[in-house]
Amino acid sequence: MKYIILILLALIIYNLAAGFFYIMTDKKPSNKGFHSLKTRIILSVLLFALLIFGYYFDLLQPHGI
After folding, report:
1. What contacts 19, CB < 8 A, 6 or more positions away?
2. Does 63 fall in a domain?
3. Could you tell me if residue 61 is inside a domain?
4. With contact defined as beta carbons under 8 Å apart, do 43 and 15 qualify?
5. For residue range 52-63, what is the model confidence (pLDDT) as tens digits?
6. Could you tell me which residues come within 8 angstroms of residue 44 by beta carbon, excluding any fewer than 6 positions away?
7. Number of other CB atoms surrounding residue 12 within 10 Å
8. Number of domains in the chain
9. Of 3, 30, 36, 49, which residue is most buried, by most CB within 10 angstroms?
């Protein structure tokens, strides 16, 4: 479960960087930045749902700091 969360976080950060790159370097109008944003939103919602699911079914244990 932890590895899935780490992979999703890495994909979100990758899409953030890719969207920034597309927006800064594209001279002609394209939808690459929009598609990167859409993918990042979908991954973020999936990560949030996975965290809720893991907490609800005791797959993830919160720890007090």
Report:
1. 32, 33, 36, 37, 40
2. no
3. no
4. yes
5. 999 999 888 888
6. 12
7. 18
8. 1
9. 36
